[in-house]
Design a protein that fits this description.
By secondary structure, this protein is α+β, with helices and mostly antiparallel strands. It is 26% helix and 17% strand. A hairpin with an 8-residue loop joins strand 3 (51-53) and strand 4 (62-67). The termini are far apart.
Length: 100
């Protein structure tokens, strides 16, 4: 059984459709063998199963998907991550670094 507290967060989706077509973050699950939480800043039409998560004072939700743990648990984790803004501090830093 996987350690439920060991997970990776990504600025992308884990699955892009309800039938679990792998999304951009999905290879991390296979590569590292840990649960992966996908966080997208914009909704994908095919990701109708993504859970919208509001943070801070934002009215635009993050779209959360997961592989290896329950989607509701992934949404709870993203909702409670550190930071006062829409994008959690850790994901904001990862997003910035990935663009450099």
């Amino acid at each position: 059984m996987r350690d439920r507290w060991t997970c990776s967060s990504s600025t992308g989706t884990c699955t892009s459709t309800r039938t679990a077509v792998p999304g951009i973050a999905a290879p991390a699950d296979e590569e590292f063998g840990v649960p992966v939480i996908g966080v997208a800043k914009t909704a994908f039409r095919s990701a109708t199963h993504a859970i919208p998560v509001l943070r801070g004072k934002s009215v635009r939700p993050l779209q959360v998907t997961a592989i290896g743990l329950a989607p509701d648990e992934a949404a709870r984790i993203v909702r409670t991550m550190a930071g006062p803004h829409r994008l959690p501090d850790a994901l904001r830093r990862v997003d910035r670094l990935s663009r450099e």
